[in-house]
């Protein structure tokens, strides 16, 4: 009995999130804001990749904003606003993901009429965020070679339902004894339609290719 109730509650929660995500999507489209849900494990390089893209977009005169999602703290938010962009911080407490409701409240605080591109950096996790779409145009997942060569095989659903996959820190592949091509092959097996980019965010490699993959 308890199991049945729990399953039904989970279905209701996921359904409610999908409806709110549709509302977020409609709002962002109304203001013609391009939006991206950036997912990935802690330490994969999500924040730095966003920072690198932000600098390039700002140089083109594009107005950028970022929502930083973490269980606690505001370190990533601080990094974003240091680049002179509009930012919002979301602390999820015990939750291992952002959801559409939290993002809805963050959007209420943003001047959407002054924003061209919005990045939403999700909580560092390769499991929970997948089931909670936020209403963005695209979902991007980032992994790094420092996480090992089995990350895609361990978390296939995350990659199967992402629009863009980034394999980051390729400059460390030799030291980690990880072949990036093995990760590439694993991604292509679960999601041959995903746009797949290899990057070295720290040294700025692959950023232009990633921007093109995101439609910038």
SSE inventory with pairings:
Layout lengths: L1 H29 L3 E7 L5 H14 L4 E7 L4 H7 L4 E6 L8 H9 L8 E5 L16 E7 L6 H4 L1 H5 L3 E5 L4 H4 L3 H11 L4 E4 L8 H7 L3
Parallel strand pairs: 1-4, 1-5, 2-3, 2-4, 5-6, 6-7
Helix pairs in contact: 1-4
What would you say this structure looks like, in words?
By secondary structure, this protein is of the alpha/beta class. It has a seven-stranded parallel beta sheet, sandwiched between helices. It starts with a helix and ends with a helix. The model has no long low-confidence stretch (mean pLDDT 95). It is 42% helix and 19% strand. The protein has nine helices and seven strands; from the N terminus they run αβαβαβαββααβααβα. The protein has helices at 2-30, 46-59, 75-81, 100-108, 151-154, 156-160, 173-176, 180-190, 207-213, and strands at 34-40, 64-70, 86-91, 117-121, 138-144, 164-168, 195-198. The chain has one domain (2-213): 3-Layer(aba) Sandwich (Rossmann fold).
What characteristics describe this protein?
globular, seven-stranded parallel β-sheet, 216 residues, alpha/beta, Rossmann fold, 42% helix, 9 helices
Give the CATH superfamily: P-loop containing nucleotide triphosphate hydrolases
Strand neighbour order, sheet with most strands:
3-2-4-1-5-6-7
Helix content range: 40-55%
Mean pLDDT comes to 95
Brief overview:
By secondary structure, the protein is an alpha/beta fold.
């Amino acid at each position: 009995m308890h199991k049945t109730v729990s399953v039904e509650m989970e279905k209701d929660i996921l359904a409610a999130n999908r409806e709110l995500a549709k509302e977020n999507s409609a709002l962002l489209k109304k203001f013609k804001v391009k939006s991206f849900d950036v997912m990935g494990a802690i330490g994969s390089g999500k924040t730095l990749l966003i920072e690198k893209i932000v600098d390039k977009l700002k140089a083109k005169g594009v107005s950028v904003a970022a929502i930083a999602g973490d269980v606690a703290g505001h370190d990533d938010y601080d990094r974003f606003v240091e680049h002179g962009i509009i930012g919002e911080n979301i602390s999820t407490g015990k939750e291992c993901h952002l959801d559409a409701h939290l993002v809805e409240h963050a959007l209420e605080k943003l001047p959407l009429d002054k924003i061209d591109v919005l990045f939403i950096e999700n909580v560092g996790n390769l499991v929970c965020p997948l089931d909670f779409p936020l209403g963005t145009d695209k979902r991007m997942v980032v992994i790094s070679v420092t996480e090992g060569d089995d990350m895609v095989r361990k978390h296939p659903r995350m990659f199967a339902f992402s629009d863009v996959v980034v394999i980051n820190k390729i400059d460390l592949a030799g030291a980690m004894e990880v072949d990036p091509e093995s990760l590439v092959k694993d991604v292509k097996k679960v999601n041959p339609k995903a746009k797949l980019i290899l990057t070295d965010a720290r040294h700025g490699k692959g950023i232009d290719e990633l921007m093109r993959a995101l439609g910038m």
